[in-house]
Write a structure and sequence with these properties.
This protein is mainly alpha-helical and 316 residues long. It has a domain at 1-91. Helices cover 74% and strands 2% of the residues. The chain contains 13 helices and 2 strands, in the order αααααββαααααααα. It has helices at 2-20, 28-34, 37-47, 49-67, 69-90, 113-135, 139-156, 163-198, 217-228, 233-261, 268-281, 285-299, 301-308, and strands at 93-95, 108-110. The protein has a two-stranded antiparallel sheet with strand order 1-2. Helix 4 (49-67) runs antiparallel to helix 5 and helix 7 (139-156) packs across helix 8 (163-198). The longest helix has 36 residues, at 163-198. It is globular, with a radius of gyration of 21 Å.
Amino acid sequence: MIATLSIALAAGLASALMFASITSGEAISLLLINLAPLPLMVVGLVWGPLGAAVGGTVATIVIASLSGFSYCGVFAVANALPAWWLAHLVLLARPREETGAAGRDDELEWYPVGRILLWIVVFATIITATMLLMMGSDAASIHNTLRKGWDDLFESSGLALNDSTLDALVVIAPIGAEMAVVAVLALNLWLAAKIATTSGRLHRPWPDLKTVTLPRLTVAALVAAAALCFSGGLLSILAQVVAAGLSVAYAMAGFAVLHTLTLTMKGRVLWLGCAYAVVAGFAWALIAVALLGIADALFGLRQRYLRARPPPLPKT
């Protein structure tokens, strides 16, 4: 127990220092602040969610002493709370109904990866919405703050933008922030799980990511959020944030569909590499991948494919 608490303390200090590095103004601090949840997630996956909770509490106290209560609140919401809860979900399991007993990995039903991904979207939405509400309590205040921020940024860089470009950036900013937070949280959790697996201390089998699916109600939530995007005002901004987060989740499911549908293709690695390269080079291509994930949720593309031509699944 003492060893676990010591490791949790070290992880909390490391996470706090990574978060506080943004005050240095160095470029490397942008990487460090995005990886701030990683030490807490590793502790949570290897030594249990209690370790992540202890480390997160220590880190929050350190941030409060260094930067004040406003920053410690941001750290708690953006790093400590997601690290603790996601580690808890990853290790959550129950006996399979057909066996009625627990003990071995094949006798346990682990919390689905798709639902963990949905929780990541929930945390990302809370983080993004909190940042927006800190800018103002209505749409006009938020837009004015974002516009001034973009204007100051480009003015300091010696660039001049016209009003239409600034308006577009103001609209895109909340959407881009939500998508970035979803990607950062998912990447941190994946890295933490990889570290735990490499050390041989991940207390659940590595999931088959090709089978990731989101709950069916997620489609209805995405449709509702997309409809509310046209409502106007603060509700419209928040709906855009939710729709962006769910779209990224379906894009990740879409990549899982691609990995399944190409199992028997010759040159599979080349085709998948080209798909990832297109998405990396053209952001709009992510919409097509998200639509593929939605189509699979509605029509069961992977199930139909595997029933029609069950391929030999690779070992890795």
